[in-house]
Design brief:
By secondary structure, the chain is of the alpha/beta class. Helix content is 39%, strand content 9%. It contains 15 helices and 8 strands. The protein has an 8-stranded parallel β-sheet, with helices on one face. β1, α6 and β2 form a beta-alpha-beta unit. The longest helix has 27 residues. It is elongated.
């Protein structure tokens, strides 16, 4: 008994270890693990700092080709090919110009362009080396450019003209006659005669897709079936037909359904003078892809209805567009964007006759 009590009262004796209290060896091991973890994190951070940003130029050429081909032809010629030697090499390949898209940059009026659109189009056609299959042109394209295209692009399958191009009916008909491979023609907000439409159909028996779009109106009671009749009498093999903003009535639509029995898609958006509530509507429902007059045109990207600028009488039209008595319809300062700057407007009129559509602007650019 005395020995037991003496040992318990010894001040130098160590207390027994608790079950939850870590041993000294465990504590050392934990500290070592924390230290190693911190070391690894520091190593990773150093490696990240040493890592160079990816060198995009090292991407394979075929990948760059796919990326750059998504841009417009104007972007490719004016900007992309000037970036580096690799881009220049890719942009000189004829295959880059199998599809030529001469869409104007957003926010540019054609009179503000720093280059000649026709000269650039002809240059792009030459670079295609005869491999052009699809071309889109708008605004300033003229007869000389169309002739240039036809002479060098016998394999052209898609011809798309938009926004009042400077192409005559005669040259468009001649072009159609010389392009036997044409499968698609788009005429977007242009003014060509119905006889031209009929001539295109007769000249291109392989034509399967045709677009003839305009700007419709619910307020104007103007019905015009001649274009629809021309299509029905000359394009029996059509599979796809787009007639946004056309002023035809049920008579014109019936003629199309009779004359184009192979139609798979028909776009009648903004065709406000047709009524599909009766038997004609039932015939249209047999077409696989049908767009109705009141369907949304949000994906079209252009104006389709002009009711906001509707003038019920010629007098109202004259008062709006010729208020200065100049007899220059559509040429007054506000219409051209000069606002109140009359001096700039007068300078523009002085230079208008001297402005050349066919001037070659590429003479100073290296490699052209």
């Amino acid at each position: 008994m005395s020995s037991i009590s003496n040992s318990s009262e010894n001040p130098n004796s160590e207390p027994p270890l608790s079950m939850n209290q870590p041993s000294s060896s465990n504590s050392i091991e934990m500290k070592r693990k924390i230290k190693n973890k911190k070391k690894k994190m520091k190593t990773k951070l150093r490696r990240k700092k040493k890592m160079k940003p990816p060198n995009w130029v090292e991407l394979p050429e075929d990948i760059w080709f796919v990326i750059l081909s998504k841009l417009t032809t104007i972007d490719i010629i004016e900007n992309v090919q000037k970036v580096c030697m690799l881009f220049r090499k890719i942009c000189k390949q004829p295959s880059m110009f199998k599809v030529i898209d001469m869409s104007l940059p957003r926010g540019y009026a054609f009179m503000e362009l720093p280059y000649d659109l026709n000269a650039m189009t002809r240059f792009a056609v030459d670079r295609s080396n005869g491999g052009l299959v699809d071309i889109y042109m708008e605004y300033l394209c003229d007869d000389d450019t169309l002739v240039h295209i036809v002479e060098r692009s016998k394999n052209l399958k898609h011809l798309r003209l938009a926004h009042y191009v400077y192409v005559s009916d005669e040259e468009l008909i001649e072009a159609a006659k010389k392009l036997p491979m044409l499968e698609e023609v788009q005429i977007i907000i242009c003014s060509f005669a119905e006889e031209t439409v009929k001539a295109i159909g007769h000249a291109c028996p392989t034509l399967t897709s045709f677009s003839l779009t305009g700007i419709g109106s619910k307020k104007q009671n103007y019905i015009f079936n001649d274009e629809a009749l021309a299509i029905s009498r000359s394009m029996p093999n059509l599979r796809h037909l787009q007639l946004i903003g056309n002023n035809m009535s049920n008579e014109g639509l019936k003629a199309i359904l009779d004359g184009c029995p192979l139609l798979e898609s028909l776009d009648l958006r903004a065709c406000f003078h047709i009524d599909l509530s009766g038997d004609l509507g039932k015939r249209c429902e047999r077409i696989k892809h049908l767009l109705y007059p009141d369907d949304s045109t949000a994906d079209y990207g252009r104006d389709t209805c002009d009711d906001e600028n509707y003038y019920s009488t010629p007098q109202q039209l004259s008062e709006e567009y010729d208020s200065d008595d100049s007899d220059m319809f559509g040429m007054y300062p506000e219409y051209l964007g000069f606002g109140d700057h009359e001096d700039l407007y007068l300078d523009f009129l002085d230079d208008l006759d001297d402005y050349s559509l066919h001037g070659e602007y590429f003479g100073g650019f290296p490699g052209f």
